[in-house]
User: Which sequence fits this backbone?
């Protein structure tokens, strides 16, 4: 017993020394977390792996915001935007990234917002449908790109996809049964050379079937051409009284973290 | 004068009955045969009292009470046994305090103290009697003798010359005593003693000396804890007032102050004040107050508290002196103590109108020195009562009627703000609030208050919110002259700070948003140093007429429209065509079909006159949907020619666009915008009024060119902040705000949301400005911004988002203005 005592003391001392110099496991830096998440996202083979990668990036974003590292937080937002399949969340994340880090140059990302898109085809479709000036309107609306742009233009007015589809379908059906095919006058069958107003219309050409439909169509056309209703009254009359959706990073990160 | 002790028992039932204990009172044996015997004895005694000539006096009532009490005690067998042990049969014994044999000599000192005690109790009342009981007990005096002496003193008074009257004999050969004018005092005293002693005997202990807990005289309530002398201590002879004044002056001249001696001296005067004449007290009080002011600590504060709430002469002399002292050199020292004293005193007021009146009189006097403190003390006291259940409704009504008129209901007064806060405070009871506001309506000069602003006693939270809204509007939209913009700004900021956006419907939210925007405009101007604009912004403008308010137009075609259109379209004779067009121009409307024909004529007619006339007719009706639709069709359905594009541009009064795709697109965008405005006009007039009001609010007080719409007005406000002296547009935060603006603007759809985007950016700019100017406010501002983010997310529509934006700006400005006023 007495012979072993010095050995025990030496062992205890060595243990303390080793523990003092041992590498302490700690919280990785936000940047490390972000990099680990991005790497995991690249290597992910399944939806679950992608979700775990997104969760890692979200943790990095939280840590970066907590430590005031807005640049890393902005990077995390962009990383998440590239992973997510939800276009609305992706837009929010890109917007948050530029708010967090105004120095960042991501103009190409911001160009995905509706205002900056080329909506000429959708605008032409809607105008020609309203004026009955198109022979192939139905087939053009079948184009998903045109339809999506039309839907995006009617959404701010409070119209659902179903309501928009129903409205367009009704317009196209009316146009098909219009004998003047969008012309104001038709030849008078009784008097040679005389033109008479097409008797199929209760309202003038281009004025739609009723006031509500006309407002919806003109509003959508206006948005597609890149101009908004300016006054409060015209905005309200077009149903544009809903709240502005403010991007909320906490809510997004919570959604990413939840299984 | 010889003293004949008497008490109600002796007067009405004879001396034997007063020998001691309930058995003697009823005249029953210690082992009664039955309860019926006790009841019969009780009845006998009561009948005897009833036959007495003074049977309808309070003294008789006290004797009856003693009989009832004795009967009740003896009917309880266990208590009867216990009482029998203490009141042995056949032995007449009295409690020490009753017994003249056990009594000490009643010297002058004790007589003076007893008299002081009565005086300190506000005269001969139940409180004085109770204190006398203690006094007699701790000084081993005969209570009879003591009261007799006091009676003699009273008899010495010139107003008291009532002769005693003999009492009738009792059946059981008990002797009767002479009546006296002080018999009611003795009756009260004796009856109380009977009850007291009956209870005390159960734990009776021989008196070996004064009881330290009860020895302080007059009572601990009237003495400072640290300064009150004990009655058991040998009392020094009363010093002449000159000697006392000299002692006080000596103390004041001593540096440092001998606290112990000072406390003793203060106690000497304040406990023996009744031994001095009022003019003597007044002579010494200034020095006394100065001395009290120098004795720092809880004892001093307690003394002030009790002095302020005392009844009678002591209050009027000392309290006035305290208040006068607060104005003098010692005022600063006493200020806090006084403020706390009023608060402490307020906790004892309950719903007693007389107490409130006394307290309020002192508070009014205090208010002449420290108006703000006094007003705050009054508000606190009322707030406390408003949160308590009503136990004495008539008392509370009188309290409210006496208090409401004393408060300041003029504009700019914190009392107004306080009341508004109360209305929405759920811990405030509606029944009390209703009474208080009713008193305001009927007894105060509160301007703008109307019957419908008084909540019902059972008003719910929603009803109180409506009341709050009415009152707030009545008090906030005053068009009085603005003397001090800071006061009015802070008042209104506080008024609106309590708005709960979710409780307002859209129409109310529009109104509140406009009011807040005006207030924020004043705050911005104030902070930016433009005080003239700030003051002008606070004065309400006359409501402006909404521009071009027209009903929505009907777009249906009529029979005449089609006929006119066909005539125009088919007319080949230029003269006829011109004639037709001239006729048409006299009308102020163009039908959908006619519009198409007019476009056709303006573009295709061989007659230049007809083309010019048609174009002029189109131009003068260029806002009609029919005309715009016809022009739009021209741009879309035909291959646009230079002529057609020029026609459209001329009709719309625009410059000729470049003949390329971009030019045509721009032309069409302008045409669609005008058409959209045309077809929505008159469909949402409340939004048009809202925009007009909001634009006016943002430009309130400004002389510069009025912006064309609300969005531009908000933008100008933000630019003013950004360009303010000291602002750094290149800072990280400024760039971040700019980016936020870009993001929000891209998300916003329509003029309403675009204005909101500007407002949100302005909120951030305001927060940045205030934090930069007052770094100490950074945390508070950040908290407001965090709350703002939550409110924005929860708001159900744009209008409510606008409201919370303006509200947050108001709260931020409040912080800033308060900070600037303090600095």
Assistant:
């Amino acid at each position: 017993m007495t012979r072993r005592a010095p050995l025990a003391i030496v062992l205890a001392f060595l243990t303390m020394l080793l523990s003092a110099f041992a590498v302490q496991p700690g919280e990785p830096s936000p940047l490390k977390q972000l990099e680990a998440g991005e790497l995991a996202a690249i290597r992910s083979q399944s939806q679950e792996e992608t979700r775990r990668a997104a969760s890692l990036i979200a943790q990095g974003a939280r840590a970066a915001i907590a430590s005031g590292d807005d640049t890393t937080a902005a990077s995390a937002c962009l990383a998440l935007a590239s992973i997510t399949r939800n276009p609305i969340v992706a837009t929010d994340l890109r917007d948050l990234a530029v708010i967090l880090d105004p120095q960042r140059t991501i103009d190409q990302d911001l160009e995905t917002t509706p205002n900056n898109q080329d909506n000429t085809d959708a605008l032409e479709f809607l105008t020609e449908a309203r004026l009955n000036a198109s022979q192939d309107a139905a087939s053009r609306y079948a184009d998903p790109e045109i339809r999506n742009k039309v839907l995006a233009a009617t959404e701010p007015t409070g119209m659902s996809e179903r309501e928009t589809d129903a409205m367009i379908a009704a317009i196209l059906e009316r146009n098909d049964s219009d004998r003047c095919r969008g012309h104001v006058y038709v030849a008078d069958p009784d008097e040679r050379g005389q033109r008479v107003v097409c008797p199929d219309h209760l309202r003038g050409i281009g004025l739609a079937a009723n006031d509500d439909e006309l407002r919806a169509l003109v509003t959508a056309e206006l948005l597609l051409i890149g101009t908004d209703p300016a006054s409060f009254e015209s905005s309200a009359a077009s149903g544009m009284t809903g709240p502005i959706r403010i991007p909320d990073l906490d809510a997004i990160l919570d959604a990413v973290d939840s299984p | 004068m010889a003293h004949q002790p008497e008490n109600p028992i002796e007067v009405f039932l004879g001396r034997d009955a007063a020998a001691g204990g309930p058995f003697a009172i009823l005249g029953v044996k210690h082992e009664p045969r039955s309860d019926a015997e006790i009841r019969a004895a009780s009845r006998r005694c009561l009948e005897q009292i009833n036959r007495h000539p003074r049977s309808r006096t309070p003294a008789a009532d006290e004797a009856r009470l003693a009989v009832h009490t004795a009967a009740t005690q003896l009917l309880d067998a266990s208590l009867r046994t216990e009482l029998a042990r203490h009141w042995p049969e056949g032995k007449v014994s009295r409690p020490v305090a009753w017994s003249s044999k056990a009594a000490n000599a009643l010297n002058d000192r004790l007589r003076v103290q007893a008299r002081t005690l009565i005086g300190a109790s506000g005269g001969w009342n139940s409180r004085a009697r109770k204190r006398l009981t203690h006094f007699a007990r701790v000084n081993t005096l005969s209570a009879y003798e003591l009261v007799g002496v006091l009676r003699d003193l009273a008899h010495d008074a010139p107003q008291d010359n009532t002769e005693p009257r003999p009492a009738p004999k009792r059946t059981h050969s008990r002797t009767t005593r002479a009546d006296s004018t002080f018999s009611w005092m003795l009756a009260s005293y004796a009856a109380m003693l009977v009850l007291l002693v009956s209870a005390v005997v159960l734990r009776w202990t021989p008196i070996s000396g004064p009881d330290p807990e009860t020895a302080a005289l007059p009572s601990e309530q009237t003495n400072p804890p640290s300064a009150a002398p004990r009655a058991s201590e040998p009392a020094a002879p009363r010093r002449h007032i000159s000697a006392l004044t000299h002692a006080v002056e000596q103390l004041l001249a001593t540096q440092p102050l001998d606290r112990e001696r000072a406390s003793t001296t203060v106690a000497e005067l304040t406990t023996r004040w009744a031994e001095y004449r009022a003019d003597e007290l007044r002579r010494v009080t200034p020095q006394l107050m100065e001395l009290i002011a120098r004795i720092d600590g809880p004892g001093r504060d307690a003394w002030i508290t009790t002095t302020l709430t005392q009844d009678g002469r002591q209050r009027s002399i000392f309290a006035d002196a305290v208040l006068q002292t607060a104005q003098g050199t010692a005022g600063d020292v006493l200020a806090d103590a006084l403020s706390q004293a009023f608060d402490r005193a307020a906790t004892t007021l309950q719903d007693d109108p007389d107490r409130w009146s006394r307290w309020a009189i002192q508070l009014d006097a205090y208010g002449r020195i420290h108006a703000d403190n006094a007003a705050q003390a009054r508000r606190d006291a009322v707030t406390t009562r408003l949160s308590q259940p009503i136990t004495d409704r008539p008392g509370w009504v009188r309290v409210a009627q006496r208090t409401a008129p004393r408060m300041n209901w003029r504009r700019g007064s914190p009392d107004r703000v306080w009341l508004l806060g109360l209305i929405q405070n759920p811990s405030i009871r509606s029944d009390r609030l209703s009474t208080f506001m009713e008193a305001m309506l009927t007894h105060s000069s509160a301007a703008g208050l109307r019957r419908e602003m008084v909540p019902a006693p059972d008003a719910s939270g929603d009803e109180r919110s409506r009341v709050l809204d009415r009152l707030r509007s009545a008090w906030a939209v005053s068009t009085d002259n603005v003397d001090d913009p800071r006061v009015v700004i802070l008042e209104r900021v506080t008024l609106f700070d309590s708005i709960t956006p979710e409780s307002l419907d859209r129409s109310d939210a529009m109104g509140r948003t406009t009011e807040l925007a005006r207030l924020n405009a004043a705050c911005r101007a104030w902070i930016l140093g433009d005080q003239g604009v700030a003051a002008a912004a606070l004065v309400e403008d006359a409501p402006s007429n909404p521009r071009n308010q027209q009903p929505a137009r009907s777009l249906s075609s009529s029979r005449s429209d089609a006929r006119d259109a066909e005539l125009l379209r088919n007319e080949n004779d230029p003269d006829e065509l011109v004639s037709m067009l001239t006729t048409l121009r006299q009308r102020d409307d163009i039908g959908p079909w006619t519009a198409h024909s007019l476009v056709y004529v303006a573009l295709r007619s061989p007659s230049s006159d007809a083309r010019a006339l048609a174009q002029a007719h189109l131009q003068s009706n260029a806002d009609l949907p029919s005309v715009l639709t016809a022009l739009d069709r021209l741009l879309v359905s035909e291959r646009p020619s230079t002529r057609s594009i020029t026609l459209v541009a001329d009709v719309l009064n625009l410059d000729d666009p470049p003949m390329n795709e971009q030019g045509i697109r721009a032309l069409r965008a302008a045409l669609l915008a005008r058409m959209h405005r045309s077809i929505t006009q008159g469909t949402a007039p409340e939004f048009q009024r809202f925009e007009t009001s909001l634009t006016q609010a943002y430009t309130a007080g400004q002389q510069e060119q009025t912006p064309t719409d609300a969005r531009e007005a908000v933008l100008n406000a933000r630019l003013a902040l950004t360009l303010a002296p000291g602002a750094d547009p290149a800072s990280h935060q400024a760039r971040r705000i700019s980016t936020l603006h870009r993001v929000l603007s891209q998300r916003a759809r329509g003029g309403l949301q675009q204005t909101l985007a500007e407002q949100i950016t302005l909120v951030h700019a305001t927060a940045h400005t205030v934090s930069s100017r007052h770094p100490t406010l950074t945390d508070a501002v950040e908290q407001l911004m965090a709350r703002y983010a939550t409110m924005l997310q929860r708001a159900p529509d744009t209008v409510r988002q606008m409201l919370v934006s303006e509200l947050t700006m108001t709260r931020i400005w409040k912080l800033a203005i308060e900070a600037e006023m303090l600095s």
Observations:
- The beta strands of chain A are 185-187, 195-197.
- Chain A touches chain B through 60 residues (CB under 8 Å).
- DSSP finds 13 helices and two strands in chain A.
- Residues 106-115 of chain A have pLDDT under 50 and may be disordered.
